[in-house]
Amino acid sequence: MVDMSNVKLRIENIVASVDLFTQLNLERVIEMCPHSKYNPEEFPGIICRFDEPKVALLIFSSGKLVVTGAKSVEDIERAVNKLIQMLKKIGAKFSRAPQIDIQNMVFSGDIGMEFNLDAVALSLPNCEYEPEQFPGVIYRVKEPRAVILLFSSGKIVCSGAKSEHDAWEAVRKLLRELEKYDLIGEGEEEEW
């Protein structure tokens, strides 16, 4: 069985789509948003940055948002609630609670051991490795859907997960595959 006790994962970024279920007058909204940019000829939404929580929001007249840069789901919820309070001050009406959908979570981590990436690439299915292009193995997990970048140092980046649970499950599947092909433990020390 795969030992996950040495594996560390940390959230680096969460991207969420949000529906406020209301139309917005962006000319009025821009007046309320500190640290924001609105140039409709370049981009159809407002780019607004909050310092607390530290996130960026793309705000569209349809009442839809994209929130990025969050380190937790709570940060996204706090940012959306903060924006709603600002919008209420300019007369925006809300008939229901916002709908927040996590689109992507990016984690950095460490598996706690080193790898021979040539051996990994030759053994594992669903992976790509072109060291001239990128110094890590790109491993694709089908369920839960995620992509893991594995570096020879054992450092990883996991993206595409929709939850922290999914990220851990994707890493668990990678480790099972590495173990299955004898790339963990004694097998990792083989010279290729």
Automatic annotation (TrEMBL):
It comes from Thermococcus celer Vu 13 = JCM 8558. GO terms for biological process: DNA-templated transcription initiation. Belongs to the TBP family. Keywords: DNA-binding, Repeat, Transcription, Transcription regulation. The gene is tbp. NCBIfam families: PRK00394.1-2, PRK00394.1-3. GO terms for molecular function: DNA binding; DNA-binding transcription factor activity. This is TATA-box-binding protein. Gene3D superfamilies: TATA-Binding Protein. Sequence repeats lie at residues 11-87, 102-178. The lineage of its organism: Archaea, Methanobacteriati, Methanobacteriota, Thermococci, Thermococcales. General factor that plays a role in the activation of archaeal genes transcribed by RNA polymerase. Binds specifically to the TATA box promoter element which lies close to the position of transcription initiation. InterPro entries: TBP, TBP_archaea, TBP_CS, TBP_dom_sf.
